[in-house]
Amino acid sequence: MPGRRDPPGGAVNTIVVVGASAAGLAAAETLRREGYDGTLTVIGEEADPPYDRPPLSKQILAGDWEADRVALRTTEQLTALRLDLRLGVRATGLDTAGRVVHLDDGTEIGYDELIVATGVRPRRLPGAGAHVLRNLSDAIALRKRLLPGVRLAVVGAGFLGAECAAVARGLGCDVVLLEPAPVPLAHAVGEQVGRVLSSAHVEHGVDLRTGVTVSAITGDGVRLAGGELVTADEVLVAIGTQPNTEWLDGSDLALADGLLCDEFTSAAPGVYGAGDVARWHNPLFGTAMRIEHRTNAAEQGMATARNLLNPSGRKPFAPVPYFWSDQYDMKLHAYGYLRGHDEVRVVAGDLPERRFIAAYRTGDRLVGALAVGMPPKAVRPWRQAIATGTSWKDIHDIAA
Amino acid sequence: MRVEFDEPKCVAAGQCAMVAPGVFDQRDEDGVAVVLVAEPGPELADEAQEAAAVCPAAAIRLVEQ
């Protein structure tokens, strides 16, 4: 039987990582660093070697960096990992009983242990001709069009849309930012903070229109749900993502807006999940979460690799999620799990000055902190307090 | 080993200062990382490795000498 390998407990000689971005790379590197010496196959859908995505909506879109600066590792570093690196190849199916991954080039590859790190892809709207921003080629295509005076419609005022709007303004484009919610980012960071962040866009000349739903892309802009046409030369759709799990359909893995994993990031015997695609139980917050942050991809890739190699000493993956965002002169850092919070309180600095720390409560616990323009030493104690599960009633004791 | 830090890439996440406080710190004014020990000895090698691995900007490289 092709690819059939010993069941768990036998020696691990073949590990396959599907996904060659931040999570997959971190997993592969950690496997080698922790002494795994067997075959290590990494499959990547894109032709480019592993690269970093956060700069795509920042330095790459702004034209500050050439494309080669986003490479995550040098050729020498990749060579040293002794990978069977297969780029430009997509996984199309999985047989967990036979432990075989099927690829779109018609080949199949057996594994002893599998790490699923296939990430997410942008959601789209009906109609052709709009940009999305996920891959390097997306960013380069959009950058070419963002000339001064170009009218850009950004659909979705989440972090990605907001960053792109800021960059486009810096490039001299006329930007309209369209958002269905009354306050951008309110669901993620709360209304107060969302309002303050979006005020920066208005001050920088972005035409921010909230409470509007885009129904389709047209040849000359976007059509709103009410029928109105918003004309634009270029359209960027930034309305969120969907996990790349279709290739797992028909396997016996549990899928629910991501690959379901336990607190050890294990999805099934011999199968792990890491990065944007994985919905795992984070015991620190007592809930399942799927986190599309750059740091989570690396941390989860590393944790998964360690648990895979050392099942008897495996550790729960219980991180404090973290992300940052750059918009104009604002640098925002957020720690914890803010989604679904019950209360936001500004605990340091001043909201209108856009220099503050906001703390987030869910139930009786401190679950998150968001900082803009504050020194790192003022923010770190908050991260620490989230990591230790501090009660909300004790937040007065957190050093400011 | 020697730490190579690509400062313009740094996003001030502070992950390095958190996992490798013996090797990295952050500047007060903007949070950009500061290398405290450019050539970490064996006692700091593990945390330096961890910092390079978790850096969300891939701004840290370790060069074996």
From TrEMBL, chain B:
- Keyword Cytoplasm set for record: no
Is the Iron-sulfur keyword given for this protein? yes
UniProt keyword list = 3Fe-4S, Electron transport, Iron, Iron-sulfur, Metal-binding, Transport
Where does the 4Fe-4S ferredoxin-type domain lie? 1-29
What single Pfam family name could you report for this chain, choosing any that match?
Fer4_13
Its cofactor is: [3Fe-4S] cluster
PANTHER family per record: FERREDOXIN
Q: What does this protein do?
A: Ferredoxins are iron-sulfur proteins that transfer electrons in a wide variety of metabolic reactions.
What is the protein's name according to its record?
A: Ferredoxin
Give the originating organism. Answer: Paractinoplanes ovalisporus
